[in-house]
Write a structure and sequence with these properties.
MmRce1-like; metallopeptidase activity; hydrolase
Length: 288
Amino acid sequence: MPFRIRRHISTRPVTTFFVVAYLLSWIAWMPLVFSDWWATWSPLVLANNVQTMVFIMIGGFGPLVAAALVTWLIGDSVREWAGQLLRWQVSGRYWLFAILFPAIAVIAASAIHIVAFDGQFDPAPTSVLVLYPVLFLQVFLVGGGNEELGWRGFALPRLQESYSALVASLIIGVGWFAWHLPLFLVAGSSQAGDPVYYYALAVIALSVVFTWLYNETGGSVLLTMVLHGSVNTSGILYLVGGGAALQTDLPNGLLAVVFLAAALVVVAVYGSERLADVEVPTRPSGSQ
């Protein structure tokens, strides 16, 4: 690659990361968005749910691949960047938070629905709930957790070099939300049917919580992957109609408000500069 292009990327690594992540993911998702047109000339039939999920999962690796590519192009150590996955020796309370916080948030939103809005207690069937560990593992590996080396492992530490932790979180939150936009047009995706405005609020609020966890654990992408997996799986615990209810306005809005409340607590307790009681982790940048 010409030196001039590498130099340009080196001066704008985060912008380049977002552009490449969007490009890679959206290329994979566009056939799903335009599936009727695609079917007129392609031998692939994208109406099948399994095929749809395969395309969605492939696109989900966009942030990871983009982060790896930009890390390599700017001469930073890909090994050190990926090594954030190995930071597992942190306090047990952070593990508990990553695993339990989303479930507690979903149950809290359910309780508000029942108490304040006359929702009827109607949890998901036990047959669905027993699949929780399997669903979590799938999401952890290929259904959201795989994004984390991009959003938190690459973009966050670099943005925190120039901005406060809160501002960095908001930038990533907006970019993270916008990255999902094509999926709102894909039948069979977890975003299809979701109210876009509540989804945006939830994702941007969660970005603050993810930053807190990343900073508090000294830059553990592994923990943010666990949190991401828990967030994407815990919807089935909703006590008023199960996970399907979260594709309607009221449950979705209540959960977004609970996530917003959690983000506000983080800011109030830890301050906007670091969103943590410890120093902000430095980005992995050793030479290749």
